[in-house]
TrEMBL record:
Gene3D superfamilies to which the protein is assigned, alphabetical: NAD(P)-binding Rossmann-like Domain
Pfam families tied to this protein: adh_short (PF00106)
Protein name from the UniProt record: Glucose/ribitol dehydrogenase
Entry similarity comment: Belongs to the short-chain dehydrogenases/reductases (SDR) family.
UniProt keywords, alphabetically: NADP, Oxidoreductase
């Protein structure tokens, strides 16, 4: 099989997994419109790949109320988009026993970026994708932490778990449409996401991001709607846990559709 989409709008493309996957998609001949809040990095992305292969839009996903306008602008400017790849993320540690370690606004802001922004953008882009006569898709970056949380990063873990549950619901509600819902659940990957630990320590953890991007592309090219893990660590354990959870969902959901 080949990757079936021709123009990917990739939100959260200025660094980390988003940037690496964007580079890999362009290498495969797929056009990418990169979206992020760091204009210089967006310009560098276009300079690297050229305007025929790459384009960019400036948007900060923390502007939740701005999602409908952004979607309208993006689809008007690039009506051939057939894949919305949502990848924004932020992460920090919280000591839940210490009331001075981050207030509620910090926790809420992290939930907004890692979960609510995804919901807002999904709602904003769904009518456009449903209007297409050709196959389309949403790709969401969740995490293995959606299955097993990391206690030191409760906001991030909770947001990814919420996003994972949202994808199950979305996939079922779109089951009769031509929109495919793809869950990208990475393991620990070496990116800027962990810079709060110190750059040297944070970026030395996890598998190399370029290698992970290659793994992602190979799985997506095979037509899967899930990319669970990245071939390192207890990947099979996570896949088994995910498979059992999805099996239970598929068996139970017919009884829940009218609830």
């Amino acid at each position: 099989m080949t990757f079936p989409y021709k123009h990917v709008l990739l939100v959260g493309a200025t660094s980390g997994i988003g940037r690496a996957v964007a580079d890999r998609l362009i290498q495969a001949g797929i056009k990418v419109t990169a979206v992020g809040r760091r204009k210089q990095r967006l310009e560098e992305f276009i300079e690297k790949h050229g305007e025929e292969k790459a384009s960019a839009m400036d948007y900060d996903v923390s502007d939740i109320n701005g999602a409908p306008r952004f979607a309208a602008d993006a689809t008007a400017q690039y009506p051939d988009i057939d894949c919305i790849f949502l990848n924004p993320g932020t992460q920090r540690k919280y000591d839940l026993t210490d009331p001075k370690d981050g207030d509620l606004s910090d926790f809420r802001a992290e939930m907004d970026v890692n979960f609510i922004s995804y919901v807002a953008l999904t709602q904003a882009f769904t009518p456009f994708l449903m209007s297409k006569s050709t196959p389309t898709s949403f790709i969401f970056t969740t995490s293995l932490l959606a299955l097993v949380p990391a206690p030191r990063i409760p906001a991030y873990s909770a947001a990814k778990a919420a996003l994972n549950a949202f994808l199950y619901c979305l996939r079922d509600q779109l089951r009769e449409s031509s929109i495919k819902v793809i869950d990208l659940a990475p393991p620990l990957v070496s990116t800027e996401l962990h810079d709060y630990m110190g750059i040297e320590k944070g970026r030395s953890m996890g598998i190399p991001v370029e290698g992970y991007a290659e793994h992602v592309y190979q799985v997506l090219e095979n037509g899967s709607d899930e990319v669970i893990g990245g071939g390192v660590g207890p990947t099979e354990v996570f896949r088994d846990l995910n498979d059992k959870r999805r099996q239970v969902f598929d068996e139970v959901v017919p009884m829940l559709r009218d609830v």
